């Protein structure tokens, strides 16, 4: 329970608070439309009125939140400020995209409820106009305001129309359709399979959020949902006058004709703050993207991995951070995130890019990756860099014992970490709090090891020279191999250096037994807080998260951190 509380306690608390606010808003606004002022509106619409208004309030709240988790500069600032007070609180900011998705799902849910309720409402508004019967209260209410149009209850002003026409000729109906279409496109294009395979589709459709928010702010301007004015309720009590509707407004009656008015639009009050923050965020990004970036070196590594080394004036970073890169010659609009593989101690910034999609393939070609001759510097494409932005890996050196787990290209954040470790020990930095690093790299093919092997060999040699070989324990796993490769590995296994990586430490085959690994580390470091850092797939994150919770040997506490960008 202690490990569970340390890893998930604050996250669960935040989620429960968020859910609690949603429940409170739903119940509060549901009941708010059951009051006397909306008595006559309910005569026409029934409880569908409350079922439409309650999710609308929740939509306002969640639309206020949806932009905040993607204000990356704001999150980086908060992360840097909070982590000095509470490392646990700072870790919650690393789950920004998870919260962003949860809020999006909640928006989708309340949108569906809101739409269904209003479909019933429009049908009932239409029915009350079509039921021509002066002794039928909904019809009488629908005729109020037909002459002077100063006060009306039913937004459908004639029986010579239909709900579909009203939907496309009113502000509320038209903006509602636009909002719904934008939301459907945004959510469907955010599915994992589309985001991974067609990133450009995800990127461009996600910018429909601009249309969504404009429509959202304008949606309530038409004031379709109406109720009695407060002044009218004082002189016309619905519970007393509703049965005497035939005498409304006549001389000698104490029931004047009720006066109705729509509620002023409220959505803008909820979303204006986050919208201003997001605009400021984009302005900061635009300013930084205009700063000059020079590509100083391009390296094509095996397994189609492109390394770009760049320089940018005033650029400062921490280990494990990431940047967004744009190549205007490929696309003026597309920005793609990449983890920095350089260390803060180096005089340049570098990224390793795996060639897996149209944009990365175009960048590979633009940088001359498909050519055998050396490219002149002036032929290299111009790029823009936005960032850096904070991630979980920034906290690596705040733990005495650290587990780094990378899968495939997911090793890139730890390249920065391990380089920084190397520099700190070369410079004999005595302020390094971390005493032990366990590094695990799971890779499906031998070629992928090659670009990272040089760094590991340097680290291995440096640690041995300084008699610190116990500081870094690295475990490299090859998860897939061919029969021919297996035969070669078997022959070469007795060699002093590993046949794949050239390291003293031999490559292992298959996948780690995480239960054994965690138990061994817990036994080796009793009473310690162990930071577990992962950059890899969701399935591996789930497995490691469970291990962090279940292992409590010797009072050891495992704190799980995952890269999200």
TrEMBL record:
Molecular function as annotated in GO: metal ion binding; superoxide-generating NAD(P)H oxidase activity
UniProt xrefs under Gene3D superfamilies: Nucleotide-binding domain of ferredoxin-NADP reductase (FNR) module, Translation factors
Locations listed in the record: Cell membrane
Organism whose genome encodes this protein: Cyprinus carpio carpio
Signal sequence region: none
Keyword Glycoprotein recorded: yes
GO biological process: defense response; monoatomic ion transmembrane transport; superoxide anion generation
PANTHER family (alphabetical): CYTOCHROME B-245 HEAVY CHAIN, NADPH OXIDASE
Transmembrane segments: 12-31, 51-71, 102-120, 165-189, 201-222
Name of the protein described by the UniProt record: NADPH oxidase 2
Catalytic reaction annotation: NADPH + 2 O2 = 2 superoxide + NADP(+) + H(+)
Function: Catalytic subunit of the phagocyte NADPH oxidase complex that mediates the transfer of electrons from cytosolic NADPH to O2 to produce the superoxide anion (O2(-)). In the activated complex, electrons are first transferred from NADPH to flavin adenine dinucleotide (FAD) and subsequently transferred via two heme molecules to molecular oxygen, producing superoxide through an outer-sphere reaction.
Membrane topology classification: Multi-pass membrane protein
